Task: inverse folding
């Protein structure tokens, strides 16, 4: 019996333009909720690749009009930090505000801090 714990990796994007942050409204078991563009790491991709893919799937950014939004996404919207804080009751997770506050406080790390073993890409 394999008792090795295998955690799931979730990625999320914080995208800001003109002091407004890109969020998605998505269908959840608890109704429509606000969330960062986010999702799980797929087999064979790095966290950075997963973040790019999830953002594209959920927001259609690169603004390619032929892109399809990820399943359950109702719409994208741009919100100010104050609007995001004020809508906490509609957030999918407390991490929506935590990611915002980390970003606003300057808490950032270079992407090369995360290493992906080459075996993942086989």
Result:
């Amino acid at each position: 019996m394999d008792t090795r714990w295998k955690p799931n990796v979730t990625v999320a994007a914080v995208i800001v333009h003109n002091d407004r942050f890109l969020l998605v409204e998505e269908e959840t078991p608890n109704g429509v909720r606000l969330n960062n563009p986010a999702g799980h790491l797929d087999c064979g991709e790095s966290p950075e690749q997963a973040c790019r893919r999830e953002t594209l799937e959920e927001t259609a950014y690169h603004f390619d009009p032929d892109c399809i939004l990820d399943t359950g996404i109702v719409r994208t919207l741009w919100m100010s930090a104050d609007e995001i804080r004020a809508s906490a009751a509609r957030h999918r997770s407390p991490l929506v505000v935590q990611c915002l506050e980390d970003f606003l406080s300057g808490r950032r790390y270079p992407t090369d801090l995360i290493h992906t073993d080459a075996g993942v890409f086989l």
Q: What stands out?
A: The first strand starts at residue 10 and ends at 12.
